[in-house]
Every structure is written in structure tokens, then in C-alpha cells.
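Bug report

Summary: C-alpha cells for Tubulin/FtsZ GTPase domain-containing protein differ between web form and batch submission.
Environment: batch mode, default settings.
Steps: 1) Submit the sequence below via batch. 2) Compare with the web form result.

Sequence submitted:
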Amino acid sequence: MGNACWELYCLEHGILPDGTIPAAKAGEQVDSSFETFFCETAAGKHVPRAVFIDLEPTVIDEIRTGTYRLLFHPEQLITGKEDAANNYARGHYTVGKEIIDNVSTRIRKMASRKSSFQRDAVGALRRGKVQSEKEREREI
């Protein structure tokens, strides 16, 4: 679900699956609204402002091997080694505990990249471009 969402964002903003903007579009006046969802690297690549997390690796592996695999930085795709088997205690106290430090660090770094992180989130909300809570839970 999250991968499909980023595919749609790329199509809406003219970003290729590798995170680049085609040369014809690069010289044009670009709508900066996509900066809410993407950040630009020093190499000119646009990377999603998202972290995908799952205790079970197969779903995230689909992103790692899919069409948009070059769009995401590998540090944005965090997986555990096994599923919590729909058991909250197992996910919270054992399996999830193994990756929580990595998850916290990654989210902290993502949020600190842009000083207007909160403003951008509010701007997206005002434009009606915020996912429903269920969609966000699936993405995370």
C-alpha cells in the first residue's frame, strides 16, 4: 500500500522511479508542493520523506526489489527478522525491541533534515493530501 502511494506521488509530480526529474521538466518552473513529500539530495535525486518499517521482511523486500527500488534510500527500509505473529507482547517486548533503536534514530534523522517538518505536515493536511490513519499504519 505504501509503495503504491509513493508511485502515485511520483506520477503526480513527474518524478521518475529512480528519483530524478526528467531533463525537460528540470528547466521548467516546478511546483514546490512535492517538497512536502520528497527531499532533494546533493546529487539532485528526490527521496521520499518516509520510513518503511515491518518486523517481517517480505513486504519491505517487495519495495527493495520493485520498480521504485532506486527511489528509496536503504536506511529508509527497516525490517526485523521475523513476524510477531499478531501478538502485541511479542512485537513490543521481543521481536520489536530488536529494531526500535534503529527505527527511532532513522525517524529522528528524517525529522531533523528539514526545520519546517511540522509546517509541511500541516500544509499537507490543509491541502487534503494526508493519508487516513489506517493507510499510515500500513505504511509504518
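Above is the batch result. After comparison, the two runs are identical; trailing whitespace caused the diff. Helices lie at 2-13, 23-26, 57-65, 88-95, 100-112, 117-126, 133-139. Confidence is low (pLDDT under 50) at residues 125-134.
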